[in-house]
Amino acid sequence: MLGLGIIGWIIIGGLAGWIASKFMGTDAQQGILLNIVVGVVGGLLGGWILTLFGVDVEGAGLIFSFLTCLGGATILLFLVKLVTGRRAGV
């Protein structure tokens, strides 16, 4: 992901955040900016979790980076829903 720069982070993060919000049922409450933020923060969270398990996330490729962002964004949205007490469709 390092070779893509900030534009790559925004694109990958936006797509991952949008797909995660669809999966978690929060897309109606989120706009494009929040999807990007959720995806980028999810990528950082996912990368941190993977490094805890000894997975080398640097230089793993575009698809691995996207999946890391997607997984992290899904976990992030789950935790937000858990803390705020919101359910899908409410």
Automatic annotation (TrEMBL):
Localisation per UniProt entry: Cell membrane
Keyword Transmembrane helix appears in the UniProt entry: yes
Residues annotated as transmembrane: 6-25, 32-53, 59-80
Pfam families per the UniProt record, alphabetical: Transgly_assoc
Membrane topology, from the record: Multi-pass membrane protein
Alphabetized UniProt keyword annotations: Cell membrane, Membrane, Transmembrane, Transmembrane helix
Principal subcellular localization: membrane
Keyword Endoplasmic reticulum: no
GO CC terms of this entry: plasma membrane
The family this protein is said to belong to: Belongs to the UPF0410 family.
Protein name, as recorded: GlsB/YeaQ/YmgE family stress response membrane protein
Provenance organism: Nocardia uniformis
Source taxonomy: Bacteria, Bacillati, Actinomycetota, Actinomycetes, Mycobacteriales
